[in-house]
Amino acid sequence: MLExxxxxxxxxxxxxxxxVSLSVPKGACLCVLGRNGVGKTTLLQTIMGLTTRLxxxxxxxxxxxxxxxxxxRAKLGLGYVPQGRRILGKFSVRExxxxxxxxxxxxxxxxxxxxxxxxxxxxxNLDKRAGLxxxxxxxxxxxxxxxxxxxxxxxxxxxxxxIQPNIVSEIEHVLQRLNxxxxxxxxxxxxxxxxxxxLADLFIIMDAGRIVARGxxxxxxxxxxxxxxxx
Amino acid sequence: MSVNDFWTPFALLPFLNALIIGIxxxxxxxxxxxxxxxxxxxxGVINMAHGEFIMLGAYSTYVLQTLIGxxxxxxxxxxxLILAAIGWVIERGVIRTLYRRPLDTLLATWGLSLILVQGVxxxxxxxPQYVGVPSWLNFQxxxxxxxxxxxxxxxIVMAIVMVAVTWFLLYRTTLGICVRAxxxxxxxxxxxxxxxxxxxxxxxxxxAGLAGVAGSMFGALKTLFPDxxxxxxxxxxxxxxxxxxxxxxxxxxxxxxxxxxxxxxYFTNDTFARFVLFTLVVVFLRxxxxxxxxxxxxxx
Lengths: 231, 300
Known about the structure:
Number of helices of chain B: 12
Mean pLDDT of chain B: 91
Helix content of chain B: over 70%
Shape of chain A: globular
Radius of gyration of chain A: 17 Å
Distance between the termini of chain A: 34 Å
Largest interface: A-B, 25 and 17 residues
Mean pLDDT of chain A: 92
Number of strands of chain A: 10
Number of helices of chain A: 9
Oligomer: heterodimer
Strand order of the largest sheet of chain B: 1-2
Strand content of chain A: 25-35%
Strand order of the largest sheet of chain A: 6-7-8-3-9-10
Strand content of chain B: under 5%
Helix content of chain A: 25-40%
Low-confidence stretches of chain A: none
CATH topology of the largest domain in chain A: Rossmann fold
Order of helices and strands of chain B: HHHHHEEHHHHHHH
Low-confidence stretches of chain B: none
CATH topology of chain B: ABC transporter involved in vitamin B12 uptake, BtuC
Shape of chain B: globular
CATH architecture of the largest domain in chain A: 3-Layer(aba) Sandwich
Largest sheet of chain A: 6 strands, mixed
Structural class of chain B: mainly alpha
CATH architecture of chain B: Orthogonal Bundle
């Protein structure tokens, strides 16, 4: 479904992640772990084509997309929830979700009903300016926007970072549902080990731009956590 | 020179007429600034050749009308298309290679403006040319205190039409959502399937096309000469910068600046009015550099 073979990715001339290989089967959930600044965000940005360039091969749904620009990759079924949410603050909630529909193949630009069912708050506030939403509400909007692309794979960068606890658990449930009911493939970076353990099937741990450990989530031992995640 | 030569005392009816002349001035400045606003606002490209696009629009109309015999009203959309096509070539050939390099874009478009002026001078010569005003616009509105030519009235109507069409495209179409998304966050727009380069191309074409229409009308209003663009670009930039580089801001700032200019001209004279206006703009930008309506400056 999503496959990276020996990928090195650059900002300018500087390689940020080096020789990353990984493969996520359809419907699986991969959790990317690691301390701050080890390249987790860059990994997701590399998949979206937001870094300067990459070497190696990147396949989405069997198609080699390593040379494609971002807007073409988006249309292969990648739904991106970036770090810091990056909601378009001048847009209404409705327009933000509509933005996601431009990655759909079918040319429909109406707000998909399914997105609103999952997040009732957004349904009631479609015409509100997105810049006025709270952090947690913006995160919900960012997920709704990614779902509006009708994705096969959701890339989530720290979806629970800096968000009040009740919304964290709501987002957690939503992700679990999307993964199990809609069989969406998830790739997420996460700081909360608890959430990672609950959601993920697979994990990788990154350090200094490389993958240093990987496996089924059951194999994520305290020893690994201690070695690569505690500061 | 006595004070009375310099200072015209207030009289109601002539003053009202000055306000109406102000509306005409607003429409001209706004039309000149519209394409600039769209291009700068969307792409962050400061197009120093915008005045020359207006000049090319005027010369296109001159060629279409005088040499081919196409009626004036039809020249407007044709000038739009011609300038949009020229804009497309320039965007592809020059601007596209210089995104993320605003200073180089500034220099390149300035160089381009020199080339365009000299090119037109080579082809048409330096002497002034004229665009004929169609007979159906050859009337004067002359009520008590109003003196307004048909052409000026037509330009006012066209300013409203051009703003309305631009507003509709930006805020009521799916293409407009794409444009506004790219304006706010190019990377996010791309991450959701929008080809930002295509949007930039279209925006530049549209902005250049608007300059073409502007040129058609300004050609009819005044004489054509190769460096006529310089006469519009200063006011156009003032309108854009004071307005905060957005559509509503440009409408507001053109309205304010046009009326102020007109009022100062009434009491003193046009030259002194410009002097006062420029001084006010400098003071205003010192206090509020982001312009009338923008919340804060965003660098692209």
